[in-house]
Predict the 3D structure of the following.
Amino acid sequence: MASSSQSAEKVQNAKLWSKSAHSPVPSQNDVSKAHASSLPSLDLNKIEVRINSLEGLYNRWRSLPDQVKARFEEKYGRIATLMRVKVQIPALKAMLSVWNPKYGVFSFNDIDTVPTMEEYQALLGIPYSTQNRIYLHLEHRQTWKRLTHLLGIPSEEAKSKETIKGNTHGWYWTYLEKRLDQYIQEKQWDQASVALALGIYGLILFPGPLGIVTCSAVEVFWTVERHEINPIPAILAETLLTLTYCRQQGKGSIKCCSQLLYLWIISHMCPMETKGLTWYLDQPPIEKMTWLVISPKNEQQWWERILSFNSHDYCWRKLWTSGQLVLIGTGGNQSVSLIGVTGYTSYTPALVMK
């Protein structure tokens, strides 16, 4: 794993390349061969997708005044919309079956595809002051101090309430939401917004064991709140890392922002359902996509849909991402470095640019 200083240097040297400026990247044939070699069989019955119950969090969001919701979105983007996304778990499992861990792409038929930072950013609309100011993972030390500053919890209480589940440290959301309820009851809307955003970061964007907001999620949110970093690279990193781990092991638990990955899947894999949607600046794509009705499907039906595409009819880019500049290389490399909360990875958007 690269050191934090090396990763930071790559990020600081990031530059936008034109599509014609990079040297050749692996061909579809190369990717397909790599995908077929030395991977264990994938047992989808041994793949878990655990998603936190969000009904209570969403009800608290609905109780906020409209002007408070508007200020929340100005500060944190459209992350609250993720609470309304109904994920079809079979879709995630079916896509995992075509994940190529060597090249970090979904590879099927003559198609290589992968979510990009720019697509995730277009969906969430998270504001940030500097594009390359990102999360750099450091060893967690006394994260309870961060929690104390964020939510106004007494130091000793925050420290004593920290729990350990397996190798994960954090706090039960049932404990933290009491602070949110207090702020809502007292109409302390700024503090309520912070507590709500922390819940979304801990239960949706960077999920850990069910019902727990991990120290890692608190650390990311702290850097967002205090240093205005862009969390999108870390969100995407966790997605790629968990897909790679599960595919290499042939089993495991998909631990990432499942709601965001699912929205990306249906935006590319459900052209008929999304065909009638028109994107306007005052109607963000994520809002419209949560209204879509996708007929429930099992893994086999999703698998058949995936295999029905070829490079000519696959939806490569949505209207809401047209004209975007895409970062396809950093530090002179033909890949983009990504630092998550559980590890470091990179991906190669040049493979999937059409």
Summary: The chain has a mean pLDDT of 84. The chain has two domains: 1-51+87-126+234-354, 52-86+136-228.
